[in-house]
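Record type: monomer structure entry
Structure origin: computed from sequence
Chain ID: A
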Amino acid sequence: MNKALILIVSVLFIFEILCPLSAWSAPYYIPGIVVSTAAPNQITIGSKTYAITPGSEIMIQLRKGPSIYEQRAKFSDIHPGDSVYVKIEASSILHVLIERWK
């Protein structure tokens, strides 16, 4: 019984090293207001700070007449007070949509 338990724990430990469960987290989306962009490549939304990965996509929504358009942006276009919609996976932001039309 003891050897079987040790074997099971060892297999689970090796599996966690090779395929960490944190890598299986599904992305989720949150709307919010940017509180701070004090640190490079980090933004604070509400009370939580998120890292923006180098491959993150940053877009701005602009209103021109009755239509809303999206255009590419960069990190420096994000300002405190901006309304944003972000896609997050494992505490890193994958996509930022700055909603300037609101």
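Annotation 1: The chain is about 15% helix and 50% strand.
Annotation 2: The helical segments are 2-18.
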